[in-house]
Specification:
Length: 229
């Protein structure tokens, strides 16, 4: 049976969600305290987390980030403020879905089911966890050579994929354009290293929320690029 953790300080809302989910056959725990909720999410076996953004002791942003650093399970974030949804997306915390309160409990159940089904397909398809690089909402599936940003697939050319993958596999390491050119294009820098710049630009357009303030691939002026973790 799939086990769900609801981290929510408004008990009436949590109880309502729990009732609906239990009626659909899920096992549900409620935690009203943020830091205890985080501990449970990390150390107990849940299949999905429903996480409220505004909690008295610790906010949902931090909790989401910390769960995502260690676990791949679906996280649905809920908030009473519509504006928060953009903020959550912008921060790239790796949440799988966002809902604004008030929402209908049956809508929640439908989304829970969809996320669990997708997650089970992913796990069941034999994709090994080490073949997927996942950083702040960006998922690079090395086996299938596919890239997802908040679960939305982004189409990459072969070289764009190789370049992104190389940088992400070697995070926080600064590479010059020359080095990247040799690494990805496999030639002794005979070609034009401006190719690297062009490819970085294209990658950013696909994965960055704001290309002038990149959160994944940083430009280190006069040196090169690095993938920030
Ligand atoms: Ca709350």
């Amino acid at each position: 049976m799939d086990k769900i953790l609801i981290v929510e300080d408004e008990l009436a809302i949590a109880e309502l969600e729990k009732d609906y989910l239990e009626l659909s056959g899920f096992e549900v725990d409620i935690e009203t305290n943020g830091s205890i909720g985080l501990k449970k999410a990390l150390h107990e076996e849940y299949n999905l987390i429903i996480l409220d953004l505004m909690l008295p002791d610790m906010d949902g942003f931090d909790i989401c980030k910390k769960i995502r650093n260690e676990k791949n399970i679906p996280i649905i974030m809920v908030s009473a403020k519509k504006d928060d949804i953009d903020k959550i997306r912008g921060l790239g915390l790796g949440a799988d879905d966002y809902m604004t309160k008030p929402f209908s409990p049956s809508e929640l159940v439908a989304r829970v089911k969809a996320h669990l089904a997708r997650y089970e397909r992913l796990v069941g398809s034999g994709v090994k966890e080490n073949d997927i690089i996942e950083i702040r909402g960006l998922k690079i599936d090395k086996t299938a050579r596919r890239v997802f940003l908040h679960d939305e697939e982004k189409i990459f050319t072969t070289k764009e994929f190789d370049l992104l993958c190389f940088l992400a596999e070697n995070p926080n390491h600064v590479y010059s354009k020359d080095e990247l050119f040799r690494e990805i294009w496999d030639m002794e820098s005979i070609g034009d290293i401006a190719t690297v710049t062009v490819h970085i630009k294209k990658i950013r357009e696909k994965i960055e929320y704001n290309t002038s303030k990149p959160q994944y691939i940083e430009t280190i002026w006069g040196v090169g690029y690095r993938f920030k973790v």
